[in-house]
Amino acid sequence: MVRSHSYTSDIALNKAFLFGHKFDKDGFAYVGSGEDDDPFIIGITSLAMIDSALKFASTSTFTMFHADATFKLSDIGYPVISCGFTDQARSYQLGALFIVSRRSAYEYGECFRSFAQLVRSLRGRELRIDANMGDAEDAQFLALSSLPEFAEANVLMCFFHVLYNVRKKTQQFLPADRYTVMRSIMDMHYCSSQHEYDLCKKAELAKWRESTHLQAFAKYFEDEWIKGRFWRWQVYHTPQGYATTNNPCETFNAVIKAFVQRRRFHMRLLLQKLVDLIETLGPKQPVTSDYVAVPTTELVRAAVSMMDSNRVTVQNTDNPKCVYVK
Questions:
Q1: For residue 23, what is the enclosing H or E element?
Q2: Which of the four, 58, 90, 105, 243, has the lowest number of CB atoms within 10 Å?
Q3: 265 in helix, strand or coil?
Q4: Rounded mean pLDDT of the chain?
Q5: Averaged over 82-106, what is the pLDDT?
Q6: What would you measure as the largest C-alpha separation in the chain, in angstroms?
Q7: Residue 322 has what pLDDT?
Q8: What average pLDDT does this structure show over 107-113?
Q9: Measured distance CA(266)–CA(235) in Å, rounded
Q10: Is residue 43 within 8 Å of 19, Cβ to Cβ?
Q11: Cβ atoms of residues 244 and 238 within 8 Å
Q12: Is the separation of the CB atoms in 146 and 109 below 8 Å?
């Protein structure tokens, strides 16, 4: 499978091919046994995917990189890692898919390194990353921090993942305490600057510590989500319009599940399914820098309803295209 789907100089743009983190003695992608000292790492992409990804990673725009793993596709439990880029409209452009034997810092690092090296060797260009968006996964964090193409980028935390972990910690709280916690976190999330965030954070933590029920939670939240390595989950870290969650990548993983009809396959057939998927995907064009999202009718109605019921307040800003919602 690896040899019959390897890259050739005359390969069609939309034809998917397999690549590895290193080569075997015959010059093809190396297929590991899956043991800890011999990991299985195989990537799938196409020239069309690479070319489109490079447009999203243009030097003239803010470049956000996403990576996420999905499961229950392989009959031996190997996860599939997808990585790609989003633009100001939160449109997701896949870069490559990888099947790996485990999710350690080494496997993640080899996936990202081999993709960057592939782009460099086939297109003669370097990936330029401004921000890496993901979940609170130490292995992925360590991998990105070790690679020159990614190490200088800010590590952004998926806000949904923050809320998911907070909900687990607060599920036994009284409703009033849960409301206080969630309201405080939302206020911190929507701060428009570091200065505003510092003031808000100080005030909300002080409020939590005044309640005996929330003192332990205040310490957990400060250690994990304020002082920890995954502290950038506020909107001011990304330009207007860009994703503040890993939802674009996770949504694509749902596309993978739907394409394979939520079934598990042996490795050869799973590779073929992912090859077929990539060949059905059309490359995307990133939006221009002056892009402004047009709200849907349903979104407008929902916003009007929330304002009429005083659930949110809206204030003008210096930007005529933006308002401040609280």
A1: none
A2: 58
A3: strand
A4: 91
A5: 94
A6: 69
A7: 67
A8: 96
A9: 42
A10: yes
A11: yes
A12: yes
In angstroms, what CA-CA distances link 326 with 77, 191, 233, 313, 323?
Answer: 44, 10, 17, 5, 10
C-alpha closest to that of 75 among 23, 39, 34: 34
Q: 123: helix, coil or strand? A: helix
Of the candidates 309, 301, 303, the residue with the CA atom closest to the CA atom of residue 323 = 303
Instruction: Give the residue from 105, 243, 246 showing the smallest Cα distance to 164.
Output: 246
Predicted pLDDT at 247: 85
Q: What is the DSSP string of 284-301?
A: --PPPTT--PPPPHHHHH
């690896």: which residue's tokens?
2
Range with the lowest mean pLDDT among 94-103, 148-157, 199-208, 312-321? 312-321
Residue type, 72: K
Please name the helix (run of DSSP H) or strand (run of DSSP E) that holds residue 96, with its range, or none.
Answer: strand 92-100
Q: For 208-233, b where at least 16 C-beta lie within 10 A, e where not — what string?
A: beeeeebeebbeebbebbeeeebbbb
pLDDT grade for 202, boundaries at 50, 70 and 90: very high
Cα–Cα distance list, 185 to 87, 172, 201 (Å): 26, 18, 9
* Tokens coding 6: 């390897």
